[in-house]
């Protein structure tokens, strides 16, 4: 069986909409052979290339045809492919926490990998090199909270925002929360500590 057919067979076992990378087929042949096979499958319309080195077997919609993955899903796939850590920042962090309904056109992620920018449809993903300290947060919620609060700013946070943030932080693993509080700027630490039982004084 040719490499292309082996790749196709494996792709057909994946759920539609799941992203995959050339490295996922490295056991089937050389990187060049895999790249050419994926290129041919893309030309045949079997798969879509959504960004450099990232492909999908698209889901189909009766109304709009082939559905492409979101920029968020692509960003996650790149982090997985490059084995790097990422932390959402700015308006992306606000949106992820539900503090803003605005879907950012430009996603900015702090990373310990290579800085780069790529386009996914009309949106862009920017990987911005950060110091290790900015990537040490463990909690999925608390690391977003730190970045969201930095985006809002010390003097612009409303009582409503703070209450929403505290409600979210109460769902965080307490061990992770304690760890992450120590990484935040002092003014953010004061807010985050209110989510702990001993931080209400």
TrEMBL record:
Pfam families given in the database record: DUF6088
Alphabetical list of InterPro entries matching this protein: DUF6088
Domain of life: Bacteria
Name of the protein described by the UniProt record: Transcriptional regulator, AbiEi antitoxin, Type IV TA system
UniProt source species: Algoriphagus halophilus
């Amino acid at each position: 069986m040719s490499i292309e057919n082996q790749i196709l067979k494996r792709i057909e076992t994946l759920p539609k909409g799941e992203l995959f990378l050339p490295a996922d087929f490295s056991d089937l042949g050389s990187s060049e052979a895999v790249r050419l096979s994926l290129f041919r499958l893309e030309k045949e319309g079997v798969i879509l290339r959504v960004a450099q080195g990232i492909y999908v077997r698209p889901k189909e919609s009766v109304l709009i045809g082939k559905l492409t993955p979101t920029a968020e899903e692509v960003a996650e796939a790149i982090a997985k492919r490059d084995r790097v850590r990422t932390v959402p920042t700015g308006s992306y962090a606000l949106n992820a926490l539900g503090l803003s309904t605005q879907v950012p056109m430009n996603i900015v992620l702090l990373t310990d990998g290579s800085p780069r920018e790529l386009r996914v449809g009309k949106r862009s993903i920017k990987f911005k090199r950060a110091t290790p300290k900015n990537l040490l947060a463990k909690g999925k919620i608390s690391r977003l909270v730190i970045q969201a609060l930095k985006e809002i700013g010390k003097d612009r946070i409303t009582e409503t925002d703070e209450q929403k943030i505290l409600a979210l932080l109460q769902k965080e693993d307490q061990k992770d929360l304690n760890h992450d509080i120590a990484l935040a700027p002092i003014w953010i630490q004061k807010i985050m500590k209110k989510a702990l039982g001993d931080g209400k004084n």
